């Protein structure tokens, strides 16, 4: 079964803020789920569920096969030995039909009778070494925010007018109480079990390899970090030794085939600016005992990367783990 995650939700500001703080406080472990429902008639299953532990895909389920596909050896061990999977499998299969019905309901709210539409639910929990725990839950429809759960106020944030009736209904029914219990207790319980079961796998750490390059002398400058684990990494730029935030495009963290991750940050500037100033890419990762800085830039020759040299300077420890996920970006298919 092909497992992938469709991520076209533009995170609500409060969630963006929360994820920023997750980077700073560095959640040690995370368990995340990604539910995706699409309208019938496409080449994709009408419902897909993907689960990840510490950014590593554990398994997935889709409405075509109606089976759970496991993706790592240690997950197979847990599946065979522990009862926790029964609860997770029941949660996924229950949402199969319900999720597709919800998509049809949303189409009615938006006065849509045809076309390709997509409903997403991203939720999960994080657990720190000191016992601190957090949960999150957000819904997206057709690539836009729809509903976001705020566990601080025990309310839902309606991102569009069509989500207001659902917000009111769920708050009146105290659905947020169920969500809080599920995210902060049941989900955390599952996560603790997985962590205790295979600490060696989940605590492996691999430092990133970093390169800085351009396609040609007039193209944007790309800082590319790859081969690192766990998933959390921070990439920033410096101009003449000062932090630079303008004209920077930080891309999503993506999975590699070997279970590690990659991420890139793209700096757009004129050839004159590049010639007259010193630009440095700075990479922070918990496996690095020092902050990694790369200032040597190479231009791609014939479409292939000519090697770059990486220097490590300034002692700096940064513990961070963010829980959002190996990502496959799927652009909305309009008109289907």
From TrEMBL:
Keywords: Glycoprotein, Immunoglobulin domain, Membrane, Transmembrane, Transmembrane helix
SUPFAM superfamilies named in the record: Immunoglobulin (SSF48726), MHC antigen-recognition domain (SSF54452)
PROSITE patterns from the UniProt entry: IG_LIKE, IG_MHC
Entry annotated with the keyword tRNA processing: no
Transmembrane parts of this sequence: 6-27, 299-330
Pfam families: C1-set (PF07654), MHC_I (PF00129)
InterPro entries membership: Ig-like_dom, Ig-like_dom_sf, Ig-like_fold, Ig/MHC_CS, Ig_C1-set, MHC_class-I_related, MHC_I-like_Ag-recog, MHC_I-like_Ag-recog_sf
Superkingdom of this protein's organism: Eukaryota
GO biological process, one term: immune response
Residue ranges constituting the Ig-like domain according to the UniProt record: 208-295
Presence of the UniProt keyword rRNA processing in the record: no
Gene Ontology cellular-component terms listed: external side of plasma membrane; extracellular space
Family statement: Belongs to the MHC class I family.
Name used for this protein in its record: Ig-like domain-containing protein
Organism: Astyanax mexicanus (Blind cave fish)
